[in-house]
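Structure, all two chains, one model.
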Amino acid sequence: MTFQSFEYAVLLLAVFAGYWFVPCRFQNLLLLVASYVFYSYVDPKMALLLGGYTAVNYIAARRIEADPNNSRKYLWLAITTSLGALAFFKYAGFFVESISDVLDTVGLANFESTLNIILPVGISFYTFQSLGYVIDVYKKRTFARRSLIDTALFVSFFPQLVAGPIERASALFPQFERRRSFDADRTASGISLIAWGLFKKLVIADNIGMIVDSIFSTSQPGGAILWVGVLAFGVQILADFSGYTDIARGSARLLGIELSLNFRHPWLATSPVDYWRRWHITLSEWLRDYVYIPLGGNRNGRYASAITLVITFVLGGLWHGAAWNFVLWGLLHAALILIWRAARQLKLNATTLPATLITFIVINASWLLFREGELSYIGDNIFDSTSDLKLALVLGITALLYSLPIWLHAIIDRPYFASIWTRNDVSRTVALTVLTLTSFLAILLLRADTSAEFIYFRF
Amino acid sequence: MQQQPDGTEPTTSANPATKRRSSALMLIGLILVVMIVPAAFGRMQAPEPFDQSAVNDLQSSAPDTVFIGNSLLDTRIDPDYLSDLTGTTAVSLAIEGTAPGVWLLQLQNVVAAIKNPPSEILIFFHDDLITRQINFTGQKDSQLIERLTHSDISGYVLSNSKEQSFADTIKSAFVSIYPLSKSNQQSQPISSIGAALVGYNDQEFADAAESTFSFANIRNQAAIIQQPKFHGDFDDVIDDSFLPELIRTVDDIGANLTIVRVAARPATDGSPNEPDSLDRYTNDLSAYLAANGIRYVDMIGHIESGDIDAAMYYDGYHLKNRFRQTYTEFFAEWMLASNNDKGTTP
């Protein structure tokens, strides 16, 4: 069930209507049932996996707190079980294939992988979220919850189940535990956020996606058209993923739950480091807090820090998918940050506008490794000069035109403009109404012919 | 001051009840504006007129054989080459993404409307599409339906009345409330602006895009194997399907009808990608067509014999462009043979 589907609209409306009428003590139970219906919609067997994750992390967190002498043992139990399941579902095929390739290359064996494992939707997201909870209990940043319903809901809350934001226990549990009452202002902003998210997905991402798919489906598009495809993919993935996140946050807001911000205008980033503070923020922060800092962070000198950074980004790349192009993509981003650090040490500081422009170009170019898994295809096309340049120009301009609403949003979200439309309740309502109405009209008029699945659903 | 969960400061209001009331009123206002304003647009939009040029073009071709289907037909049969091979005039009316509802309209309003109708009509389908009660396999194009429909004919009503699911009813209601959604421009306005800025008109842009992104230039996606789709036992779906009406219409035209089921891409070991449920369905379909005197051709036999293999496929169903002529030759041989020996499979 995807957010742009008729089924999701029915589910959300039904949950919204029921949620504010049932007694408060049943609200979480209703959300839990809805979450399992949502997740089981395609394949009910997958709900068992979700239940398994809940059971393991619930028991581990409770035991860590109840039995401090053995808390480390229970922590590792949770880590190995959760990551083991993730490794099995997501990486087993990749490793078997890689081993087969290596053995084949050195002439030792030649076998074809027959593993055909279905990747459960959202497994990377709920693995990290539930692991974060257990680690936080171990580190005494939060306490183990007694309520199994609340814990199960924390793992499975449907708006953010399949593609985040990856929430922290300290942010989400207190919201499940407090009394929630209907708030018209919050509902209005939730509706607007959903409309804006749907606009980004159905109008920008899906239309741009057709251009991107056409380009990357062509055996020899030539260098110019390939680079236009990369630029267009940068627009598509931002609109797609941030659109998904807005729908998730808007849906949760209708239910009185506030999810974390996952994007903060990443195109305005002034450096690779700044970019990761603006793009997929909850994943960046998770990797920082649970991988980079525990491995030493910046504490052990420049070289150790660089190695830790590379490890973190390789893991971040692999988190997206079991493929070598994601590993390279992670390595590239680690390299960009290290180069930026070196440039800062050499006092090579650019002013804001050039820095933003350079970051935008470099980060967008890096999407080539993310979008295309076949390195020989990149090699064959990247410097190929046979592109139809006029067609490349039309496609490039089209991609830029589709990106205009995202730029416009980045501008009107700046404090000066935001202070105008949030001045009072009336101005705020007018702004939300204009945003929602414009989004709705644009969806009716400009939506793409077909709507593809959200890109991050496959991670 | 305590923050709201959404990060905003609660507004200081003298009376919380008044504040709640005004918030509720503003929420209702927002919902009403958003629901009502878009409904006002597009109401006067006239339907697309019937496309007489489709009839005229077919009439001028004077076809002996007409092929009907979607992109699966288009990637398999080259009508000009088939005409050369068979010495007859073959025309393909393939339209990408179409399904039996549209095919019926093509038969009723285009093929039946020409003065000398063809003697042979062949309909290509995959899996169980021939009995599915749909007009399109993917995104619906209501303007295509309008272009294929005379305003006074029952075909349009028929083709839509077949869609009975709750979701479709809701979607139809949505379209009638918001007619603007029917005039979906499929992203053309934006790409048209892009084209105009570099001095292209829409047609030049379409031609340039077609030249670069044509089917012949598409990368191999040999790893893709789609699971064939099955939507219910034959006996449960036949009465509500378009198939009886398709047979009646071809009978009225006075042509011979051949129903051709194309095979999905075989499994990696070369075996047919055919679940048992679909196997039972095709047996029932075959028996039904035989009882109605309709010729049925199932291309799955060529997967079993190895004549068509996985390498010929671009994806789960479409053939690679370079095998289009091979397939056409295959089919021409069968057509020539079947003129002498009815019942031979290609």
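The longest helix of chain B spans residues 16-40.
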